[in-house]
Amino acid sequence: MNFTENKICQLLGIKYPILQGGMAWIADKNLAAATSNAGGAGVIAGGNAPAQLVEQEIEECKKLTAFPFGLNIMLLSPNAADLAQLAIDKKVKFVTTGAGNPGKYIEAWKSAGIKVIPLVPSVALAKRMERSGADAVIAEGTEAGGHIGEITTLCLVPQVVDAVSIPVIAAGGIADGRGFAASFMLGAQGVQIGTRFLAATECQIHENYRELIIKAKDTDSIVTGRFTGHPCRGVKTRFARELLNFERDGGTPEQFEEMTAGALRRAVQDGDIERGSFLCGAIAGMVKTIQPTKEIIEEIIKGATTLMKGNG
Questions:
Q1: Is the pTM of this model over 0.85?
Q2: pLDDT 10s digit of each residue in the chain, 312 long?
Q3: How many Cα atoms within 13 Å fall on the side-chain side of residue 211?
Q4: In what order do the strands lie in the sheet with 69-74?
Q5: Pairing of strands 146-147, 115-120
């Protein structure tokens, strides 16, 4: 499949319109470089990490790939402003954002030549981002891992495509060529993939985390934290069920935040089954094989090409 006229490929200077999700504590220099080297767009996740640490990741990633990669900024993080400036200082190719409205940073990013691609869970925010100057948007459905909205990918993507004139990238529940092809049939110009890359050999997560993903079934993801206003999807562990029971039994959002503080880092780095939050998308049940990132991307493109030629 030839993507030379694809709007996302042209926008970012990449071979395939596949963005790697900006997964906090997971999307590091190794995964980002591997994705970019394979023809996609790698992303380093800022998360809650100190700006100095993220700067080191960016510098190391530049040594590992000559291809474009981006920085993801979670706007709820206390370090968001520092990372917004870091993107400018380090001249990253593009920025993806989540958990908020990046409007106050867009002008500075655009002036620095940085492409801006916010994640949106609704048509209203997509339209606002277009008015603010975003170059594209990521329409992410509730099937995604981590913080999520409530609208499914199948319903959200075509509505966003119809509402804006900038390119739309589909995210949430995409793991293979079928999901890629389906996204394009909905009008998307690209896809963002996260959970599938948890099984990439370059993904530096604890083996306990990887094993949970590989062994997951279709019903093994769970959403917690809805009462905080920031629902989050992850593996249905005993800790996740404990969190769900806590919010059902009258716990407060403040207590919930205390219980979950540092839980993702405990999962990624320590493999802490008892108190870690192992974030994943609803598509985890389809992830069965540990493979190099290059193989994953080529497999997705091959599968999508076969399907899309059959419908062409």
A1: yes
A2: 678 789 999 999 999 999 999 998 999 999 999 999 999 999 999 888 888 999 999 999 999 999 999 999 998 888 899 999 999 999 999 999 988 788 889 999 999 999 999 999 999 999 999 999 999 999 999 999 998 999 999 999 999 999 999 999 999 999 999 999 999 999 999 999 999 999 999 999 999 999 999 999 999 999 999 988 889 999 999 999 999 999 888 889 888 888 998 899 999 999 999 999 999 999 999 999 999 999 999 999 999 999 888 654
A3: 8
A4: 18-20, 190-193, 168-171, 137-140, 115-120, 94-98, 69-74, 42-45
A5: unpaired
What tokens appear for 111 in the block?
């002036």
Distance between CA 228 and CA 277 in Å, rounded?
16
CB atoms within 10 A of CB 111: 9
Q: Is 10 exposed, middle or buried (0-12, 13-18, 19+ CB in 10 A)?
A: middle
